[in-house]
Write a structure and sequence with these properties.
With 346 residues, this protein is of the alpha+beta class. The protein contains 8 helices and 22 strands. The structure holds 2,5-dihydroxybenzoic acid.
Length: 346
Amino acid sequence: MSTLDAPDGDAVFRKGMKDASVSPLWDVMAALVTETPQPRAVPYVWPYADVQPQLIEAGHRITAAQAERRVLILENPGTDGDHTITDALYAGLQLVLPGETAPVHRHTQSALRFVLESDSAWTSVDGEPVKMQPFDLVLTPSWRWHEHGGATSPTIWLDGLDIPIVQRFSAGFAERDGNVPANDDAVSGRTRAAYGANLKPARTQDIDTETPLFHFPYAVWSKSLAEYAAKVPVDPHRGWTLEFTNPRNGGSVMRTISAFVTWVPPGMTTKPRRQSAGAVYAGVCGVGTLIVDDTPLTVGPRDVAAVPSWGALQIENSSDEPLVLFSYSDRACHEKLGFWKESLEQ
Ligand code: GTQ
């Protein structure tokens, strides 16, 4: 008599499998190999007016030095407190107060900062400081030493990191000691002078493919985006969207994270667009609605929203001023791994 013929055969078989650390694919096949992405993350918005006071309260309770980074993580309600805003990305709001320095460290994880409030704060990358102005994009690519300081008023930015991706690969390393190698080249403005005008230093071939530019000032990107909007017909699915690029290869701004700015004119609602990448949006100016499948997310300046993989996204600007949004996504990974898909609907 085979095990399956025994009265309790199935239970015995299942216990045997469990004891042998195997499991039947047929129980989970449909959940593992889905016809379309089934993200755990849900469409969601974090209004700045709700989160900013909690961050200021955190400022009364813990110093930047104690916390290492004083950050409130934006936890997607669908991902069960596992510190993700989409299935593969992390987001947080970081506060630096006058007189504080968030101590120098480096890690495998790539980080971007989208500045929400700042007068005079700086971030330094491998010792080179850049001043952070509202709506500037500042990058800390993988394994670069970085610290933050110089605030003269409470300074707040959106942190976007690939923490869940690095975690899934168990590929994370970090160094926290202060043994930062002296970088004699680290003069403020050096990188912009070298790479900021589609030029680069004439010397041996770059072996590093990571972006050398790590500061994309609002004053520069907003001017380009406005001129683009004035000269090119609007894309029905994307509004006017420009991607930040790595000047070394024209690709995504960091290896794992893509970043964009979007302009939607008054009165426009974009046609539904799905993409396999999960995205995070932050409002810059105007007020609009991200409609994700049937969920409306109202986004004004400094509000942050999650648009999970394969959600049908429409961006509606019912106000009478332009709606400008910053976004970042894991599209860079999808493209490199051959995963990326997009569906433009009517
Ligand atoms: O500023 O280096 O939100 O290392 C999470 C991890 C910020 C940072 C975060 C980090 C940082």
